[in-house]
Amino acid sequence: MRISLLLLISLSLVAQSSEDTKSEHIKLFNGENLKGWKSIGSAKWKVENGVIVGGQEGDPSRSGILLTERTFKDFDLSLEFKIDEHGKYNSGIYFRRSKTKALGHPYQLNIGRGVADEPVGLHLGDWLDKGDEDDSIRKPLQWNKLRIRAIGPLIKAWLNEKLIVEYEDPSPRKDLLESGTIGIQTYGAEGHSGWVKFREIHIINLIKK
Questions:
Q1: Looking at the whole model, is its pTM more than 0.70?
Q2: Is residue 94 one of the residues assigned to a domain?
């Protein structure tokens, strides 16, 4: 009897949550060009065969971020990525990025190699959750599926359909709970240049009614 009651309460809460939120499904990358995106920094971004390619053309100082023109607060983002294995070169997904730089770093789901201490994990000035720290889930030089779900202070991430991050920020900055841009990065860490590729970038914008 008690189990049935708990199940009913759980289903009621899920239904109430669904009623309080509406979903907007958006294809962030059209597969043809960078419409809806803007670049900051000196990195080179281009579209090849339906794929966004970011890199530095051999110059590690040419790092940068490709940002969405739209902003998002609570969302469920999915994409596929493939990344170079060179040195400490890494990439990442920024989210809730404020237009005011003085507010500090945004959340970042880092993309890199665990062996270089740049795993696929959550970062905010420092590591919040190293996620796939031992490179047991990421597929080197292959396409990997990444999903990020951010609702309020709770952030979850899945790599190749396996949960790697579940972090609730105990004291988030005010701007980190507000709407911000989403960015994909190419970063020449410690003088290492490289490349990163993205495709199938979709987002579900979760909007409170």
A1: yes
A2: yes
Distance (Å, whole) CA 175 – CA 169 = 13
Amino acid at 77: L
Residue written as tokens 């960078």? 34
Domain-embedded: residue 159: yes
Helix (H, G, I), strand (E, B) or coil at 71: coil
Half-sphere exposure of 132 (CA within 13 A, CB side): 23
Torsion angle of C-alpha atoms 91, 97, 103, 104, degrees rounded to 10:
-10
Buried b (16+ CB within 10 A) or exposed e, 2-38: eeeeeeeeeeeeeeeeeeeeeeeebebbeeeeeeebe
- CA dist., res. 145 & res. 107, Å (int): 19
Contacts of 46 (CB under 8 A, 6+ apart): 52, 53
Ordered per-residue pLDDT tens for the chain, 209 residues: 444 544 444 444 444 445 677 899 999 999 999 999 999 999 999 999 999 999 988 787 888 999 999 999 999 999 999 999 888 888 999 999 987 665 568 999 999 988 888 899 999 989 999 999 999 999 999 999 999 999 999 999 999 999 999 999 999 999 999 999 999 999 887 777 889 999 999 999 998 87
What is the tally of structural domains in the chain?
Answer: 1
Residue-number span of the structural domain to which 148 is assigned: 24-208
Asked if residues 107 and 176 have their Cβ atoms less than 8 Å apart, the reply is yes
2 part of a folded domain:
no
